[in-house]
Task: inverse folding
């Protein structure tokens, strides 16, 4: 395989990994941050 083919394969795998991270792991991190903020800053009662 040529260098160009390896570059395209690596680029494709990188893109797949980024999309999976963005849609799955980033959402989990955001949920954890929101939960931590809610625990540290309870809503004031009126």
Result:
């Amino acid at each position: 395989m040529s260098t160009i083919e390896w570059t395209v394969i690596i680029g494709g795998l990188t893109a797949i990994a980024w999309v999976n991270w963005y849609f799955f792991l980033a959402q989990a991190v955001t949920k954890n941050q929101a939960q931590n903020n809610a625990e540290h800053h309870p809503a004031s009662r009126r």
Q: What stands out?
A: The mean pLDDT is 80. The chain is about 85% helix and 0% strand. Helices lie at 3-40. Residues 8 and 14 are 10 Å apart (CA to CA).
